[in-house]
Amino acid sequence: MELRAVEIFLVLAEELHFGRTAQRLYLTQPRVSQTIRALEESIGGRLFDRTSRQVRLTALGERLRDELRPAHDQFRHAISTVTELARGVSGELRVCLASYAMAGRHFTTIVREFTRRYPDCRLTVTEEFPGEFARLRTGVYHLMCHRQPITEPDLTIGPTLSREPSILLVQAGHRLAVRGYATLEDLGDYAVIPRGDIPKALYEKYFPLTTPAGRPIRRGSPIATTSDILHRIAGGEVVHPTSESFVNYYHHPDVTHVPLHGNPEVESALVWVTEMENAAVRAFAEVAAEVLACAGSVGGRSVQIGSARTDLG
């Protein structure tokens, strides 16, 4: 059975319409019909029941579809993989940071090393808050530095970029700043940012609805940027749970921070759409894993990249 015949059969099994199949494969309708007839003669049985109004798979056709589809997909994946290898890591790789604090303290080293190894790949890094995943799924970005938890089944979670204690950003002179620390119970006295487009699982982990004692934690007015958060904190409108590295990247003269006791560690990772993984994505993830392993910044953990497993730490 020729590969073209397999493709025609599988598309027709999906479309169940000779005209649409021909259009999709840039063939004539008689060519599609001729190929299916020849295939049925070769096999010795009917694959489709045809009427003037309907095309339907027979039981034999369903079995052939189910047997051929995985092999055909694997064949296409193999060709795509070797084509990428032949071309090398090139083109453009677009990385999104919901905030630079999510990229970890070794991100600049990762970028520098990737650029050194793959000079033919144009790397762009953009900060764009909040960290919703639609921008990955639509191909605006290839990779995102994002805070855990990431629960979406269509995404691959790559190397852990950072794992840090929680802090609470408060207005300078705030009573919690004077005391020198905050607890989750303290959040019941203040407001935090609303969810907006922040992924639900992530938001609920770091911005609980209630304190441990069951007191509600109020939500402030909507925010659009990281600068908005700082402005609201400085004005005393909200307090903000985040990671220690936040203050390395963002400053405001009227904002300070204290340790937040009881909140989980803040962990960030590389993430990408599994079906859109390519050579450049794999290369960046591998460079990140190597840099982080050398730095010893994340504990012993493994990450699956393509068909290889890389140990971190």
Automatic annotation (TrEMBL):
<dbReference type="GO" id="GO:0032993">
    <property type="term" value="C:protein-DNA complex"/>
</dbReference>
<dbReference type="Pfam" id="PF00126">
    <property type="entry name" value="HTH_1"/>
</dbReference>
<keyword id="KW-0238">DNA-binding</keyword>
<comment type="similarity">
    <text>Belongs to the LysR transcriptional regulatory family.</text>
</comment>
<feature type="domain" description="HTH lysR-type">
    <location>
        <begin position="1"/>
        <end position="58"/>
    </location>
</feature>
<keyword id="KW-0805">Transcription regulation</keyword>
<dbReference type="GO" id="GO:0003700">
    <property type="term" value="F:DNA-binding transcription factor activity"/>
</dbReference>
<dbReference type="InterPro" id="IPR000847">
    <property type="entry name" value="LysR_HTH_N"/>
</dbReference>
<keyword id="KW-0010">Activator</keyword>
<keyword id="KW-0804">Transcription</keyword>
<dbReference type="InterPro" id="IPR036388">
    <property type="entry name" value="WH-like_DNA-bd_sf"/>
</dbReference>
<dbReference type="InterPro" id="IPR005119">
    <property type="entry name" value="LysR_subst-bd"/>
</dbReference>
<dbReference type="GO" id="GO:0003677">
    <property type="term" value="F:DNA binding"/>
</dbReference>
<protein>
    <submittedName>
        <fullName>LysR family transcriptional regulator</fullName>
    </submittedName>
</protein>
<dbReference type="InterPro" id="IPR036390">
    <property type="entry name" value="WH_DNA-bd_sf"/>
</dbReference>
<dbReference type="Pfam" id="PF03466">
    <property type="entry name" value="LysR_substrate"/>
</dbReference>
